[in-house]
Design a protein that fits this description.
single chain, 206 residues, alpha/beta, 10 helices, globular
Length: 206
């Protein structure tokens, strides 16, 4: 069981997934909040029933699965709807992530939590030992969203504004990686941080 857990967080399209993949390549177990978020809203799950109750049966596709595109449009247009969704999903995501990290083997474990700031930071996740923030300028986030998700400029702006701002995320950070260039530029900070986390975990007895 890993007793030293590092969170990776950052704004939308900041490069969290790319950074997490590089740590995974080093043999580090990664619990991913995005993966868990999809699992808990699968057909038959309690969270999906609660979402349909809150947003109406029209939020489901014909096969009974969640219409994620429609839900995304609604929550980024309505802050109250987003808060209602988070009330349903965040506690369930938190419990599953903690369970996965507790079961992880290795020197340390990592947990990717895009909405860590919005979910209360260390107050919401008191079992974290370290927080790594992936930071990118807003213009870079916007360009990535428009290219990656075929989002309009307006939707990209709403997605960025719907999240905590850069300064709020950076205020939580123990470590920061700036991701505004080619992905190869991530190699050096990942190697440095992996060495740091291994030392800290060993000192803790993890």
């Amino acid at each position: 069981m890993a007793t030293f857990v590092v969170a990776i967080t950052g704004g939308v399209a900041s490069g969290k997934s790319e950074l997490a993949r590089r740590f995974a390549d080093l043999g580090i177990a990664i619990a991913d909040a995005d993966v868990v978020a999809r699992q808990i809203v699968a057909p038959g799950q309690e969270a999906l029933a609660l979402i349909a109750e809150r947003f109406g049966a029209g939020i489901l596709r014909e096969d009974g699965a969640l219409d994620r595109g429609q839900l995304r449009e609604r929550i980024f247009a309505d802050p109250a709807a987003r808060r209602d969704l988070e009330t349903i999903t965040h506690p369930r995501i938190r419990r599953e992530l903690m369970s996965q990290c507790a079961a992880a083997t290795g020197v340390y474990a990592m947990v990717a939590i895009p909405l860590l700031t919005e979910a209360g930071g260390r107050t919401g996740y008191p079992w974290l030992q370290r927080i790594l923030v992936v930071d990118a300028p807003e213009q870079v986030q916007r360009a990535r969203l428009m290219a990656r998700d075929q989002a309009s400029r307006e939707l990209a702006e709403r997605m960025i504004r719907a999240q905590a701002d850069r300064q709020q995320r950076l205020a939580l950070a123990d470590d920061v990686v700036i991701n505004d260039a080619a992905t190869a530029a991530l190699d050096a900070p990942v190697a440095r941080l992996d060495a740091l986390y291994r030392r800290l975990a060993a000192a803790r007895g993890g």
